[in-house]
Every structure is written in structure tokens, then in C-alpha cells.
Predict the 3D structure of the following.
Amino acid sequence: MDFRFSPPEEAFREEIREWLKTNLPKNWSGDRFSRGSGDADGMNVYADFAKRLATKGWVAPHWPKEYGGLGLSVVEQLIFNEEMSLANAPVGYSMIGVGWAGPTIIVYGTDEQKQRFLQPITSGTTMWCQGFSEPNAGSDLANLSTRAVRDGDDYVINGQKIWTSGAHYADWMILIARTDQDAPKHKGISYFLVDMKTPGITTRPLIDMMNNHGFNEIFFENVRVPRANLLGEENRGWYMATTTLDFERSSIGGAVGAKKMLDDLVVWTKETRSNGHYVYDEAPVRWRLGEAAVEAELGRLLSYRVVTLQSRGLVPNYESSIAKLFNTDMQLRMAKSGMEIMGLYGQLDHKDKKSPLQGRFERQYLWQTGLAVGGGTTEIQKNIIAMRGLGLPRQ
Amino acid sequence: MDLGLDEQQEMLKTFARDFLEKECPESLVRNMEEDEKGYSPELWKKMAEQGWMGLTIPDAYGGSGLSLCEQVVLLEEFGRALVPGPFISTVVLGAVPIMEAGSEDQKKQFLPKIAAGETIMTLALTEPSAKWSADGVTLAAKKEGSDYVLNGTKLFVPDAHVSDYMVVVARTSGKGEAGITLFIVDSKSAGIKYEVLKTIAADKQCEVTFENVKVPAANMLGKEGKGWPIVEKVSKAATVAACAYLVGLSQMDFDVTLNYAKERVQFGRPIGSFQAIQHKLADAVIDVDGSRFITYKAAWSLSEGEPDADLMVSMAKAWASDASRRVVAHGQQIHGGVGFTKEYKIQLYFRRQKWMELMWGDGDYHREKVAQLMGV
């Protein structure tokens, strides 16, 4: 039971803070929801920041050194994520590459694939997207119907993917497609690395409710992918895709960003007058602030517990799922509370100059509503916790 | 940074669990609900032999000199086993104010006997106004010669009827936090009357009336008029203790319920295969685990003297109070009818949760404190 970071760890935190002072984009408002939202200007900010991170080896700092990482400990990576989250740094460019594509290639890739794909990820020059979900394969992902058929030295892909974030800028895609139509649904899926410039790929924008072009629909029409771009064994793709989830550590550390938003909100309630008193002077407002503060601390501790397990060489099971689930829910509740505390002003969009705190709570409210669905809905997460974590029966 | 237990804490936990499973079975818990004293002197003696009463008392006074972190580990097991009796009353409410503010003589007189399990103590703080704050203290202490004379009523005093001594929070003058003085009072002093309250948890809280009770001035704890800061220290340790008890209680309720959901068959399948049940249990495990780690953080912050310790204590109680209530409510619902019977054990947890939820401030009380401490 020790909640303190070691002096070298604190020094690392300080190093990151110092570095961010000079390397965040000019005039960076910290509002990642108005930038990097799919428009070209935003994307340039993200791409530029990825290259800056690369000069420090910080694109994938937890990867092993031989693959371009720094081999950071789990705690160091937590610190790194916390500082990026606190600064609202534009780290999204390499998210799929670092969190999904790279780790899967490290485990299942051939030497040639590792040579070819890993360095461009850690140098911050290649952007990946993830071709998993389909119109009829959302929560039931294994129901996917995009087909990959062997034809000589190629696979020929036909089908459709959806909710593909960043596909309109991505260089490469990790794709799961059905290679055996007759096998049970989990057993006929393969994992491919697809060049987004391949003929036959069409990308169509999907505009989200924040009015952003973040994700897309992708259509595959006789897209030829060389056999050399099959990752791992044919028909083992489902298991590779699900184990990739275990590498996903990027959500750890997000709670401090929420705490920062809350701190700003507290200041706002103490500086803003309403009906002859400060907003903070109303008891129900203070209870909401108190509740949000407790939840932000909880979110942090549930994440730290995962880090504790990993540091001790144990493999987290339901512990990482509950950390992720709680943090997503917590941030949505906090955004909601913040907007309600702001009253009528809460509804103002960030583009309106009267919006409190640059409209961050309004943006966050919309964004977190999306995050409660993306990457596994809250309900699917609970199913996983119950069945995988608590051992409850499926039937 | 490591949120887990160290080797010593792990040993303490394992030992306590084995010991309590054997020595504090459900039958004892039930008997003590009906028992006048509310605790088993045999079990008390055996616990003392393990050194548990002196866990946080310094070596020099016969204890083990461990920290609040170890106490939390132990109290979690107490919550799991629903250990009845004046343990928290004695080792927290009684021993902490003496360790914090006692004179050398008082420490020598009381701490070794507490550590040995020979003295039972409690704290008489709350009154019929049922307030945790200093302005709720009206029991008067007036100086007469070399004595103070106490008059007034204390209410919700845990285990007072079996105590040897009480730390009584009295008013010697003034209002609010000023003018509050603590006395160590012999529980058998003339003029004190006890009435055990009938509570939801069938624990033993008392109404204690003081009618011209004479207390020698030498029994003052700390200085006259300077008692409130001592009460605040006790209340923080007691709040963390309540959280730890709730963590253990919630964990056990959850474990029992999870097991039941796997075994109980309806519609030809275990009810734990239904998502309606699965999602309740997923929510409950977050509540249990969250309560545990925020409680650890509060205990650690207090024992390390961290600047945000007060905030962490209130965060812990704000969360554990409500989270434990959600856990035991799910426990009842998932058990269905059998959960509502006296015979089945789950109700023992349900009733005690409400008790500890209310002790030392409920969720609303501590959320307000969090808000006040946050902006500072």
C-alpha cells in the first residue's frame, strides 16, 4: 500500500511537463475536440505532434527497444499517459498503430513484416486505421461478412467496414475478414494489413453528432491484398484481434484529464455569479462537484490498480475492463453534471463566445456519449466483466 | 506506487480470515444480536492474544506500533465476518484520543491495558441533535473544586454499556469548536445511566445520561477548551475504520451473491446467465473494488500525513457509504425471496451496511466536505 511515485518516476513526469511546454502546437487551447476533428488543419496538428514525439522516442514509449520503443515500465507509461492527458495533447495520430497494429505485428508478424511496419509507426510517419466493425457486425463483431478469397499470390477482398476512425488520412488498415465461409463464425476469420491506396477501396465520410468528420464507411471492391500481408495464420484472425485488446493500455491515465476539467469547473463556480451569489454557494452544486471529485479519484485508483497488477507481473482480467468502463461512465457523468451546473449556459456550443470554459463540457458530453459505445458498448463491457471476470455462465 | 498489500499485510489478512472463519461463525454473529452485552468475552480474549487490540498502539505501550494501513486490512476482515463487539470503539474511539492527546501518565495507564484486551473503551460524542459537528456538543462540564461535574445526554454512543471508560466530549464554555473539553470518565461513575438502543443492525449503541457526574480534573484529556481538534483526529480514523468495515462487508455480500447467481436455476438455467443479473454484478464489483482502493488511499494518506488526507478520508466515506448500499441492495434483489428471510445470512449484511453508512457521516455529508476541501 504505497501511493507515492519514486523520485526517478517524478523526474520523468517533470521531463514530460517541461517538454510539453515547448512542443505543444502554438496557441494550443487544449481543446482536442475542436481540433483534429477530421478536417485537414486538425490532422496536420496531430501529424506534426507525432513527429515531435518521435524525436524523443515517445510515440510508443512502452514498446520494447528493439521495435523502436523505450521499454518504459508500466508505471512510467502511466505517467506518460497522465501528462499527455493533462495537457490534452494531440496524441491521436498513432493511436491505432501503437495500440493495435504494432502490438499484433510484434506478436504474430514475420520478421519481414516487423521490419517493414514497426519503424514507420514509432517514427510517427504512418497512420493506421482499424477495419473491424461492419453494418451487421457491431457488438457481435464475429458476425462480420467482408470476404477475403485466395487468388494466386493475393487475397481478393469484397465487403464493407464502418465507424472507421481516421480512415480518410490513414496510410494502412488492420482488417479482419472472413476467409472460410463454412467454418463456425469465430474460426473463419483472418487478419490483414492493407495499404489504403490499393485500388478498389472507397472511403465515404460519416459525420458524427459533434459535426465532425471523424469516422468513415469503407467499401472494398475486388481489392487485391498480397499474401505477404496476411498476419499470422489464416483463419486465426479472431483470436489475434481479441488478444490485441490486452495490449491496449492507452485508456489508463485518462482520469487525470477529467480531474483537470473538474478543477476548472470548480474555479468557474467560484467566480461566476448567479442570482446574487456565486454558483458555488448553492448546496446542490457543491454536492455535484463533490461527487464528481470522488468519481475522478476512483477512476484514477481503478487504473492504478491495473498498473499495480502489471507491475507485479500479473495479467489483469476484469480489472482493466472495470477501469475502462468506470472511467468512460465517470467522464460522461462529469460532463453532464458540469452542463447542469452551468444551467442554460451549459448548452452553448464551443463556437459560441458566451460558452463557459470554451464549451468543453458541452463537447465532452457529446464525445463521451460516443465513447460509451465505441470500442465495445457499456453493456458489452459488463457482459465481458460478468462472464470472463466473474465466471458467470453464458447459458 | 503499488496499491496492493505488502507481505506483512497479506499475512495479517490471511491469518485474520482463517481465524475469524473459525472463531466468529455466523451463529455467533446471530447470538450477539440477542445478547445483552453484544460481544463474546471469549472471542475478545482470543483476539487480544493475537495482538489485534494493540495493532496501532506504540511498542512502548504494549502494542505493535503498526499503521492505519494494517488496521484497515484487519478491519476489512472484521467487516467480512461481521465481528460483533466493541473493537472499533476501543481501539479507535478510545485509544486514538489517548495516543493523540494523552499525558504520559494517561498513556501508561490506559494503552497497555487496551492492547492487552483488559480495558474496553468508547467515545461519547453525539447527542440527541445527532450532529457530528462541534455545535452539537452541549453536555456541560463545570469545574467544582478539583472535579468537573458533567450534566447532559449523549446518544448513539457505541458499546457504552460494556465500556470500562468513556472519552466524553463535553462543553466547558463557549460555542462551536471553542470550549470543548475531553474527559476520560470511569463508566461506572455515580450518576451515569445507560440505555441500549434498538437499531437496524442490532449493534449496541446507547443513550448515556450524565447527572451530576463527578470527574477528577486529572482525567481531562488534553487541555481545557482544546478538545475539538482531538475529536477531529479520532473522527478521521473512525471514518476510515467504518469504510474498511464496509469494504469487507460488501465483498462478502458480493461473494455470497455471485455464488448464488451461479447456482440458482430458473427457466432451466442459472440466473447468473441472464444479463439483467450479470450487469448488476458487474456494477457491484466496481463498487466493491472502488471502495477498497479509496479506503486504502485514505488510510495511507492519514498515516503518512499527506496534505490531502482529509479530502481522501471524506472521498472514501462518500463513496463507500453509497457503493456498499448499492452492493447489498443488489445482493437482496438477486437472492429474491430467500434474501428476505431471517434464516438466510444475506440480511445480516444488508442491515449492518445501513448502520455503517450512517456512522461518521453518510454520502451527502462527506460530498459536502469534499466540495469544501476541493477548492482550498
